[in-house]
Every structure is written in C-alpha cells, then in structure tokens.
Description:
The complex is a heterodimer.
Chain A: H1 24-37, E1 41-44, E2 51-52, E3 68-71, E4 75-84, E5 101-108, E6 115-119, E7 133-138, E8 151-156
Antiparallel strand pairs in A: 1-2, 1-3, 4-5, 4-7, 5-6, 7-8
Chain B: E1 5-12, H1 24-39, E2 48-52, H2 55-58, H3 63-66, H4 68-71, E3 78-81, H5 87-100, E4 106-114, H6 120-124, H7 139-155, H8 159-173, H9 187-192, E5 195-197, E6 200-201, E7 210-219, H10 220-226, E8 231-239, H11 258-270, H12 275-278, E9 281-283, H13 289-298, H14 307-312, H15 329-332, H16 336-352, E10 366-373, E11 377-384
Parallel strand pairs in B: 2-3, 2-4, 9-10
Antiparallel strand pairs in B: 1-7, 1-8, 4-7, 5-6, 8-11, 10-11
Amino acid sequence: xxxxxxxxxxxxxxxxVPYRFAAGQYLTKYLVExxxxxxxxxxxxxxxxxxxxxPRIVCAECHVKNEEWVELAQEGTLVAxxxxxxxxxxxxxGKPHEPPFVYGSVRLDGATSVLxxxxxxxPDMEKVWVGMRMRLVLRPKEQRTGDLSDILYYEPLPGQVxxx
Amino acid sequence: xxxxxxxxxxxQTYHAARRHDxxxxxxxxxxxxxxxxxxxxxxxxxxxxxxxxxxxxxxVHMTDCWLVHGTGAYGKPGLKITTGGTVGATTVCVGxxxxxxxxxxxxxxxxxxxxxxxxxxxxxxGVAHPLWGRSLxxxxxGYFATMGSSYMATWGATEEHSAMVAVKARQNARKxxxxxxxxxxxxxxxxxxxxxxxxxxMLDMCPASNGACAMVLADEKTAKKRCKxxxxxxxxxxxxxxxxxxxxxxxxxxxxIFSKVCAARMYKKLGVKKPAEYFDVFEVYEPATWAELxxxxxxxxxxxxxxxxxxxxxMTNIDGPIxxxxxxxxxSTNCIGASAxxxxxxxALQIRGDAGGHQAPKDVRRALTTGYGGTNxxxxxxxxKTLDD
Lengths: 164, 389
C-alpha cells in the first residue's frame, strides 16, 4: 500500500454574540454626570475614606455602603503605562486599535483608584514615563453617549521634562 | 486538613502549539492514561473526577459532559472547574478537599486547554469589566506590560532582568521533554526579540500551548497501600482580590494584596518563618517575566523590590539555592487550564526525584506552587515528601 501523508480535518467557525449590560445605580450616575456635565465623580467609603473608581455600591474592603460622592480633579499622575505594538481588537467595536498606541493608568488628584485610558502622546519611550502629569480630555458635549468612551484620552500637561 | 491527602500518580501531554492530530477528548485522554498508568490504577477504581479548563477559550461549553469518554467520568460524580489561570490548581484543590473531607478516597483531577481552537487574546477581554475599560483590554500582554513599566520605574530594574528570567525559563525547558518552548536562547536574543507591548518582548511572554495534565489523589490509607512514592498535600489556600484597586501594577502597595495574603496564611498554617529555606523548590505561575520577579517578593523569598536581584545573582537557577520553575514554567508552556496543575505536578515530580533532566540537584523534601489568573487571584499548594517534613 502506498503511504499517503496523513490528513487532519479542522473546521473554522465564527460566533457573534450580542450582549447588553446594565450599568446599575452607581455607574449610571457616574456616566450621566460625565455625559451631561463633563464632571468626574467617585465614591468615598465612610470607613476607610478611600475614594473609589468606578463608583460602586459597597466598599470591597470595609463592606459598608458607599454614600458620599466626590467630584475629582481632571488632572493626575501616570502610575503605569505601555506602548502597544499589537493591533489588539477593541472588544466593544470588533475593530482593531491602530498600533502603536500608548495607554496607561492615571491616578486623578483626590482619587485612591486609578483610571486606565489611552494616552495621547508619541509612542516613544522618551516622551512618556511613570510619574508624568496628565490631563483628562473628554469628547465635546454633543458627541458624548454616556459610555467610558466619552473620555477621549489623557494628554500630558505641557512643559514637563523626563527625569534622569 | 481533616484527612491527609497524597498525590499518587500523574501525567501530562507533550505540549505544543499545534495538535491538529487530536480533538479535545483525545488530547485529555493522553494525560488521563499516563496518570492512571503512573498510579497503577484502572478507571474503575477512581471514585470521582474533576475536570478543569477555561471553556470559553475554545468556545465549547460543558466540557465535563462532552469529554466524558476521554476523562473516564461516565457514571461517576464530579464537577467542572473554570477559574481562569488558576483552573488547574483549583481542580487539585477541589479534589484534595473532597478527599480530606472523607467523601471520597480516590479522585482524578484533570486540567487542559486546546488554545489553537479559539482566540484566547480576544476572549480574555471578556474577563475585563464590560463597561469600565474593556475597550482597552489588551489581552494578558497589556496588563503585564503596565506592570513591568511600573516595576522598573519603582525599583530600578531594567529590561535585562526580564531577559534573565526569559532565558532561565527556556534553558530549563530544554531539560524537560514535555515543555513547549525548548529554546536555546541568550540574554541578547531576549533583548532583541520583537517588542509586543513595551516593555514586554516576544520572549518575555508565555506561548499559547495545547496540552493536558492529570493527577490521581488519594487518602492516606490508599496512598500508603498503593503508592511507593506518595507526595503529600500539606496545605492549600486561595485568596481573592479587590477589583480595580489592587494588582501587580502597584508594586509597592502596603495593602493586603491577594498574593501576599495567601502566602501569609499558608505560612501560618505550616509554621513557615523563612520560606526560601523551608521549601526546596518553587513552581510559580509566571505568564510573563515580570510576574516571576513579583512572585519572589510576594512569597517572601526576598524583600520588596529585591526580586530582580535574586535572578541577577542566579539564586533561582535550577542549581541555585532557591530553584524556581526548573520545569521551564508557564513562560515555556501555557496550556492554560493545565498550567496551574502542571506547577503542582512538576513540584511532585521534584519531590519524588522523578523530574529527570530538570531534577533540581538537591534533596527536595518540600515544594510550594502558585497559580495565578482571572483578575488577580491565586491558589497555592504546599507539598512534602513525608508527613514528618
């Protein structure tokens, strides 16, 4: 018998599933304030006093109800970042982000938490660093939809020099 | 634990990027047969079966039902476990708890992933909060990259330290016939590999592997009767973490983070004061180089910010005083649902003295393993050679 090269069959398949998630009591209030008034609100735990983002009903550590809303400054400090070279798919749109791009974690002044978003800076190690001061930039009011994408990106405050 | 539990057998597949030659049940069965052979048992003797994988990666749900013929679960009690990167260790933990409680005497625990059948990076974005940052969910590499940038800025480590971990893992993997990436690489190779997401390069990250691991656990009476080299599970623990606030990006946090909380609880149970001396071998879950450095610190093998000094001095080499991941670790083989179980199984092989080419050249009596996954949680397992160790 003639030996043929072994064939293995595998069958491609794509599954496209729609979802709809409820933002709930706390995140809805946050998203409405950001969309309608251009303000960023966090919640403060009555016990440990941590100012938390995203706003949520219970402090995970103290397990008490968060009831105090605190408006945050829209400036903060970059605590971690990456320059992404892979064309990662945006799961909310199904389309890839155009690489390279920068994103990172910024602790807005007055917050305990960080908020991750794109950083509008050249994808160059000399142009972005941990500790850099950032400003949050929202979409123009008429373009806001009540979603985290109402934040366009962070941009560095002007006049900063990379520390040695 | 209420009753002592031992690992009395185990087995794994030869892990690879492509396994078009088998379907999921066939692949799982390879590990199951090796584990049963190693334990000297037939499937009829197994009381209960626990199967773990991240079913949404392959898009086939209810794997415990679909793979019954491959796992041997027909007619038997059992559960399916799906807990992120920790799956394999959670599955062992569940098996151990069921035996320790007295419900069963012999459990078969199985972990697997056939990553090539789905798109793990895309599916991982479903692990992110749907309304808070999911559009940025950069697979696993994005998170470990932000963590690396923070680690370097906080402690003064460099990309060279990451490369040292990358090289150690792949050189160890060359000694392990089952490992996926058996690469003869140098520091320069790692530093010159393609940048994926600064500061993570191709060789700083784990591969996407296909593979399975299976282990037979038994109570003390069965273990002593049936097994020449039982390895004892002395303690297992897990810890969840606060979301959004606390993860490995915050390398100098003073707050109780999952990894330190879990280690502290384990050490208290076992009376461990100096973990680097108490344990002879460590198998940790390091999907990226930077995770290994943080494990050194969070497990107390060194002080905060000193992890990169350990690898710099070669302390964690296979022949060093604190061998970490002599198997090559997750950096060399990541079949996700099996990866955390492979940590436990590889540590058991070290204690048995059966690790072959990657056996640490010392008397291995105790080992500690970690799992890592989800959105920052861990499962840890402490093993020993005898119940007196």
